[in-house]
User: Fold this.
Amino acid sequence: MSKHRYLGDGVYVTHEPAGHGKGDVILTTGHHEPHMADNVVVLESSLVMPLVEQLVDWDNQSQEEAG
Assistant:
């Protein structure tokens, strides 16, 4: 069974667990169900941590620039 969460601005995140793996993370806009969504991005589990790390880096850079 998949779980979804509304992130805001019409964006939802859903986790589709795999049988023995970590599963995929699915970002959708307009609706949490991919077949009803306006846009769908599927991230393999191996891409999630690099994405989070990049977001943290950008946040750290912004904080350093703000002083």
Summary: Residues 3-66 form one domain. The chain is about 35% helix and 35% strand. The radius of gyration is 14 Å. Residues 4 and 20 are 20 Å apart (CA to CA).
